[in-house]
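Example (one chain per record):
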Amino acid sequence: MRPVRLRRDQRGTLSSWPFHQLGQHLAYEARQAGVPLLEVDAHHTSQRCQRCGHTERGNRPDRDHFCCRRCGLAGPADVVAGVNVRDRARSACLSPHPHSPPGMC
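Predicted structure:
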């Protein structure tokens, strides 16, 4: 059996579906538990240095490792990305976005 080939514009839509579904599930569970859910943009979080803020593709030499080309900070890429997501959420709470629900932070 031949694999199905999708058009380029269809690939992005279909590959992002599981993330959308996960987001919907998290939002539902958070509502049920009465826990606020804050979404932040994860763009470049695994390529951005949490120490100096330098962002480039070369900071992430492979899937698992992070090493800042400017200041030398190194560590697991997932941990670095997680810290950057946390920091973005904290800064969103310090300067609330006009679309965030009241009392979110």
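Caption: The CA atoms of residues 15 and 42 lie 16 Å apart.
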